[in-house]
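quick one before i forget lol
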Amino acid sequence: MDIPQIQKELKFRTSRSSGSGGQNVNKLETRVEALFEVETSSGLNADEKRVIQTKLAARINKEGLLSTVAQESRTQLSNKEKAIKKMLNLLETALIPEPEREEVPERLVANPRKRKKAKSVQSEKKAARKKIIPPKEED
């Protein structure tokens, strides 16, 4: 993954942000959306593109654009920086290989008579712990 090349390929879209901003909230476009076209990127090799497209399929729109949004700050510049960091972090975490799972052998079926005997022994232990209630005498 070529990070400087990916940063060059990012496109940005701005819009009015929700939340605080005082008098600027209805005038300035501080919300920044970073857009990245995975298929045509020269900063990723073919394997990386395939992995990103499968792992981040839910975040890639119909046009093939992967997007991240930042609107926490009151300035467009700081939101742009945050959107870039989010995008790079998203791409890096998607490219982390998943650990291979160990094959666990299927458990052997236990001897049913032995298991039933163990259950009855356990049952007898528990029954011996109960309080003995004397029967009521009727007049």
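fyi The two ends are 92 Å apart (CA to CA).
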